[in-house]
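@channel anyone free to eyeball this complex?
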Amino acid sequence: MSGTHKLLVANRGEIAVRIIRACREMGIDTVAVYSEADRTAPHVLMADQAVPIGPAPAAESYLRGERIVEAALATGAELVHPGYGFLAENAGFARMVEEAGLTWVGPPAKVIELMGSKTEARKVAVEAGAPVIPGLNDPVSDPAQLEAFAAEHGYPLLLKAVAGGGGKGMRRVDGPDELLPAFERARSEGKAYFGDDRVFVERLLVRPRHIEVQVVADAHGAAVFVGERECSIQRRHQKVVEESPSPVVDGALRERLGEAALAVTRASGYRSVGTVEMLMDEDGSFFFLEMNTRLQVEHPVTEMVYGVDLVREQIRIALGEPLSWRQDELVPRGHAVECRIYAEDPLRGFAPSPGTIEHLTEPSGPGVRVDSGVLPGGTVPLDYDPMVAKLVVWAADRGTAIERLRRALGEYRIDGIATTLPLFRMLVDDPDFRAGRIHTGFLDRLLEGERAEALRRGPDAETEEAAAIAAACLATLEAGRLPDDPWAHAGERSWWEEGLRILHGRFPR
Amino acid sequence: MSGTHKLLVANRGEIAVRIIRACREMGIDTVAVYSEADRTAPHVLMADQAVPIGPAPAAESYLRGERIVEAALATGAELVHPGYGFLAENAGFARMVEEAGLTWVGPPAKVIELMGSKTEARKVAVEAGAPVIPGLNDPVSDPAQLEAFAAEHGYPLLLKAVAGGGGKGMRRVDGPDELLPAFERARSEGKAYFGDDRVFVERLLVRPRHIEVQVVADAHGAAVFVGERECSIQRRHQKVVEESPSPVVDGALRERLGEAALAVTRASGYRSVGTVEMLMDEDGSFFFLEMNTRLQVEHPVTEMVYGVDLVREQIRIALGEPLSWRQDELVPRGHAVECRIYAEDPLRGFAPSPGTIEHLTEPSGPGVRVDSGVLPGGTVPLDYDPMVAKLVVWAADRGTAIERLRRALGEYRIDGIATTLPLFRMLVDDPDFRAGRIHTGFLDRLLEGERAEALRRGPDAETEEAAAIAAACLATLEAGRLPDDPWAHAGERSWWEEGLRILHGRFPR
Amino acid sequence: MRWVIRTPSGDREFEVERRPDGLFRVVDGERERLVDLVRLNGSLSSMRCTEDHRSWKVLAHREGRHWRIGLWRGDVALEVLSPAEAVEAESTAAGSGSATVKAPIPGKVVAVKVAEGDAVEPGQPLVVLEAMKMENELVAERAGTVRAVHVGAGETVDAGTALVEIGE
Amino acid sequence: MRWVIRTPSGDREFEVERRPDGLFRVVDGERERLVDLVRLNGSLSSMRCTEDHRSWKVLAHREGRHWRIGLWRGDVALEVLSPAEAVEAESTAAGSGSATVKAPIPGKVVAVKVAEGDAVEPGQPLVVLEAMKMENELVAERAGTVRAVHVGAGETVDAGTALVEIGE
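replying in thread with the prediction:
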């Protein structure tokens, strides 16, 4: 019953689960690695083997490349899949994997290096004939350079940590007053998270859309694009909702986007699945932003619309197999939307909300997919990215997909930690979102307005009334168990509540 | 926030949940009806309103049409959706609904009546030019007729209760000795379940495939077919696994099947979604079997392959809207397989296994859909059909779909009741199933052979060893809590187990 | 039993009685409802109003008097109080002139942006806290004057630790 | 602690000891394993063998000495016995010459196909029981002679009710 190959997943959470699922379906055995905080995490439970690699902090576990390579060698895994985040775009780790005689499930190390440098990637794009946004070609060493650039191109500007990604180390600058503090903050975040305090500057489009093109290239010179994703719903430059296709991309524009993305892909010597990110202006013109040399968080929307399995394909390509599809076989059908469920409290400035998941009900049924990294009773550790799951829906068109999303959000229940679910329940009713009138500043603006107040107020009056009645009945039910004092304070809980509490406390989860 | 329409679901279990989900996505309010056994069933929890209609036995609740109509009138529902089973093919109920001024989500009562009679349906098919299987045109009143038919066409024969369906009231006869007892049994089951003891006889194809064609017709004269489903994996004439497309149907054969099905659909004056069932011989010739004038249990495989929502379409058509698709827009993509999860014990002759679901983990991730009618902690009542959920997977091709099914079955855990999950885990490894070499007697034959012994033995040696180690550790852990006697008998459980047991027992579920 | 339910849109008072048949009689002013509420697995309940047949799947989470009720259209945060407690809570809330800004999560203080005596406006950054790979700015919810600063940059704090006091 | 684990393919004996570090030392003949088993929510546990890093999600369901362990590749039914119990259980099973056919589920007896004194073959129908809309034939699992019939057609029976006794 053992597979013919064995793959180590150098990641955790939902993406580790996603990769293990793909391996199961390919008959490939899997090895998980885990930190002390993840001893009983879902990816550990699902993998065929699991190897501890260090204490909770990522810097001492999931970022320790040499321990991960050791684990692969110890278990006989020949493939290493990095997922996204952690070491996924670390050329040094890719090289370390290959030097150990293992197969890296991703592009060659030198391509990661090339496209990981914003300045080099920009040069590749220019040479490939893809449009790029105005900006300085080299990192800013002196604030005076910033001022000169601002004088030439005007505000707003965008400061980006050279090694940054996923919204970390990015700062918007709206005027001269903000220039220096933003520069300091971008440098400090770059240093703290990526060990690199160099910062890059470019013109900021005022209401741009974030459109990205999925590309796949094999080791035999074939490459295709698999449509685009619209990732404009962001918060603090962090994607929150993604969809495919984009509401503003028609067939002709899709061709042009795809050709530009493929030109960059080919020029970089790419091999594996990857993503070319573009910024699109309100007039439909687009600019190369960067290339993500890895699997993307939001890959499921493309999978649902194109009927492909990108993780499977990525592993096939790493094994040297040829691309499964010709370009003309990749035909979009319907519309998919993904919501990233974060353990963050939208009512408290999106403060991270780690803790124990006391209740979990996931939606299912037609057109609904949940890629989850948590179990009921499990904990969301403080040490890692707070994304706990992705809810992805598909339907025949965008309007129906949004209605389906509303239905799925209604079924979705996570209790014990705060999540971004209430935000999404509000979003599906927003007229601008429903009409597809979105841009990268959309969500931040939405949360400033009266909708934020609505979020705080909670659902409609009828729902509030039902909740009040339910609470009154449940309070009566619980009070009935304590004849003397209806109120259960800490030390006065009824015996069964106490038993349950102790039961839960006794077993590490 | 209220919808513009309100629909009553005259059913329970997973199909009631499926219909409520479709309504949610269409902005239609929902009314559930329920028996005493279903006071806290999922469909009751999900609907906007819920009306009790009687005690547990179906004959006193879900089959009481007049109470259901009363419930619709009392709650202001204008639409009634019957699901499948119960009153779905009861023309009298359809008529009662329409006479009360409500809208029936299904074909006109007279079409239900026409196609519900096997003899009339056969005449319609003959007139429409569809091939039919040799058989007597009228019910058998005298065993002598049976003997005469057998003398002319030979054995095996099939006896079918006139009003039967879903495998109830069907008997295979292999020789003269079995003729009379089988006739008696078919009559008695017909009488018991459908109140009609008339029985029909026809030639039985020896290793036929059961292929059915999904049709959809609107009120404006348009009709399309949405590919075929292969339903050959059956047990006692009850479908267990269905897939789309059929492994033996190519484009040309699909056209011929579709045209025959549409001819019958048009000739019957059909309107709504419906299914034309065909038997296919080993040489690819096919015969009209019957028409199911309702939504089919296995509709999700068609939905996943064609990217359509059949329940939504059914409701749209009942509201008088035109068909959403032209025939040429209905293009199949990939392959879908459905497993019906029954509360039955495959190790004890598929004996029904009602009870409380103590643990439930449903699979998810790419290409997996679960249409479930149960909740963790919920009960499976003895009074109704034992199907608790449907697991449906989609992938780019049949082979990959089967690998995905294996992965999903591995993730699926239902504890507290016996289910058919172990059967499916065995099936995905069967070489004949994997090669698509299936027929309607396939499963019964499979279960006679050494595979049945494998089912009894359980999974492979490595898994058995892991289970033994787990049990030894868990037993030690539990024994450690009872210093005197390591064995926890009923009265000697450790305090927290007892607390948990009482906690569960105290609250009705 | 009498309860004051404090919802985002105001207080409501209910008289609730469990009848021998297991139904709850819920009286709200002149309106009387019969409610069929059954506790299921863990925090899950089913609820139905017998008059209008409205039905809900209820997920209830309780911490002392604070409840969160999850229904199909979203979650509602409530307080459930006895009538006496309601009066008492009212007067406490009204009388308080100062607010304590607490750490919503465990984390590391990256920067403190205010000092004792500073005047602050609503939305003004007070403390930057790092947790879960993000820097989180804690801002003033109301205008006032900083009465005390309890932490310094570099300190690690637990959830609930008082960081800054703001008075009038 | 010593356990005999009775699996479908035979008995295995384990000596299990919980070490101060929380790991389980499991000795099976000459082979020794260190097992990291953690109980999670309800019936769920995680398990890992430290030597070969094999890892499992374990769902355990127990009724007295009978356990069902659910793993990724399927469920395994086991008995967990003390060495003394294992010897005792062995002798009971071997000594018994008769079998009682019980109703596996509650239902209604539709027909009784055998009478006292009949010789039966494995697979021969004994009783037809109706439940959940289906007629279910209960068949003889072994050859023998019907020693007693405890029910008649039309009777409603509970799960576990003895229906027929078959002897040698």
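from a first look: Chain A has five domains: 6-105, 134-203, 206-333, 334-456, 461-506.
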